[in-house]
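call fold(seq) -> tokens
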Amino acid sequence: MKTGLVLEGGGLRGMFSAGAMDAMMENGIRYDGIIGVSAGALFGCNYKSHQKGRALRYNCMLKDEPRYMGLRSLFRTGNIVGADFAYHVVPFELDVFDTETFRNDPTEFWMVCTDIVKGEPVYHQMHEFTHHELDWMRASASMPVVSHPVELDGLTLLDGGVTDSIPLRQFQKMGYGRNVVVLTQPKGYFKTRSRILWAFRTFCRKYPKVYECMARRHDMYNEQLRFLKEEELKGNTLVIAPDEPLGIGRTELNEKKMRSTHAKGYNMTVARMDEIRQFVASR
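ret:
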């Protein structure tokens, strides 16, 4: 039975996941496959390249870089995350990604995007760390309203969290029978209907299907939480989630908060390491 690691998105809340992954890498925990959504994909690729600490390191390094993330990038380019700088300069020049290790590691790496024409999730396997594949990663993390849609391989794509925020069910369908799921919202969290649907309506006027997805996203997410709980009770899923709200915004490059969020994920995972090790070994 294949083991999987499922990573929710959440922007800089994903530092919790990065901390959890750093603890697991440090303790030699390996998976047959990883699937990430948005920030889960951005940070999860470092697991396959064996680069512990990289996600925290480059985000702290770039916290004051206007080309990286923030309102200046949004006003100048239409993307709150600078597309060329973040996805094509950082990993090849400023904090170099280990492309060879990624290529040679046998772990399957998947990411989730949203086809905004059809209003459906798209699951893409990344074999190589190339500029083209990084555009898939950019699509997975391109938040509606503050990002341009990504035109790629004949598809028009945005954030995977719009249609599949916690892709546990999909990973099970792909043969991953035992999964560790890392969430970035606290235990007991319940998503409510978005209060800014008017902004999505304006943004998505060319893509009515994705607006429908945004309007019912809270129902989709809460159903996935219910399914996650059911699978956890069956014993085939182990959930790592914060005990309380993380207190960091999706695009909040505050170094103190990033380090604190990372530490919470790391410390919680270390405390549960024996449980995680036994769970992954019980195939």
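The longest helix spans residues 217-234.
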